[in-house]
Amino acid sequence: MGRKWNNIKEKKASKDANTSRIYAKFGIEIYVAAKKGEPDPESNQALKFVLERAKTYNVPKAIIDRAIEKAKGAADENYEELRYEGFGPNGSMVIVDALTNNVNRTAASVRAAFNKNGGNMGVNGSVSYMFDATAVFGITGKSADEVIEILLEADVDVRDVVEEDDSVIVYAEPEQFHAVQEALRNVGITEFSVAELTMLPQNYITLPADAQAQFDKLIDALEELDDVQRVYHNVE
């Protein structure tokens, strides 16, 4: 499990270093979630989840409020949720999730990022079958045994609870996201270093130095695209 946690931490640290870009992407994600139902997180689970993620990235309240107000108003921008799958150097696997109001633009940009950085696009399902959708929480101030007891008392099933560095990490089925969160909140745990729905690879690979450098350029190129929300991969 340690490799999974380190991968998540590194990904989050990378995004934290690009705050303006990540804030803009959250603005779109919040807008889209708010447009799906009521612009109220108490009655809109999709919006509630996005706002929980935004909290762990310290997205300013002004950006959140502006996106929700836009969804309440006359704005009628239509975004599509898209997933692309592909391969990077040395058999590495990559999943790209996007939100776009121009499918042709996004497809061309993602394809170009792959082609220019030693990768190639795959068909739907060519990569995702090697990943598992997973809810992940990072908690401090509790031991793994304490967290397990909390979840057992709340009758919440999870995949695993492990201690990594100074954190306790909970891995659960995606549909258990809110159940896990509520169980922890009911005992006073309200701050999470990570609260994500992510795609975790079933197996990780290590790349030689030259391939790793090219792979890093591929991931950077994908994450820099305005339409791309998240990038998952199987490289340590």
Name a few traits of the molecule.
four-stranded antiparallel β-sheet, Arc Repressor Mutant, subunit A, Probable transcriptional regulatory protein PACILC2_34010, alpha+beta, globular, Alpha-Beta Plaits, cytoplasm, 44% helix, transcription, 236 residues, DNA-binding
Give the helices and strands, then pairings:
Blueprint: H1 2-16, H2 19-36, H3 45-56, H4 61-72, E1 80-87, E2 93-100, H5 103-116, E3 120-122, E4 131-139, H6 144-153, E5 160-164, E6 167-172, H7 177-185, E7 194-201, H8 209-223, E8 228-233
Antiparallel strand pairs: 1-2, 1-3, 2-8, 4-6, 4-7, 5-6
Helix pairs in contact: 2-3, 2-4
Provide a quick synopsis of the model.
The chain is built from eight helices and eight strands. It has 236 residues and is an alpha+beta fold.
Please provide a written account of the structure.
Residues 79-235 form the TACO1/YebC-like second and third domain. Residues 3-73 form the TACO1/YebC-like N-terminal domain. Keywords: Cytoplasm, DNA-binding, Transcription, Transcription regulation. The protein has 236 residues and is of the alpha+beta class. It folds into 3 domains: 2-72, Arc Repressor Mutant, subunit A (Orthogonal Bundle), CATH 1.10.10; 80-129 and 202-233, 2-Layer Sandwich (Alpha-Beta Plaits), CATH 3.30.70.980; 131-200, YebC, transcriptional regulation domain (Alpha-Beta Plaits, 2-Layer Sandwich). 44% of the residues lie in helices and 22% in strands. The protein has helices spanning 2-16, 19-36, 45-56, 61-72, 103-116, 144-153, 177-185, 209-223; strands at 80-87, 93-100, 120-122, 131-139, 160-164, 167-172, 194-201, 228-233. The strands form 2 sheets. The chain has a 4-stranded antiparallel sheet with strand order 3-1-2-8. A hairpin with a 2-residue loop joins strand 5 (160-164) and strand 6. Helix 2 (19-36) packs antiparallel against helix 3. The chain is globular.
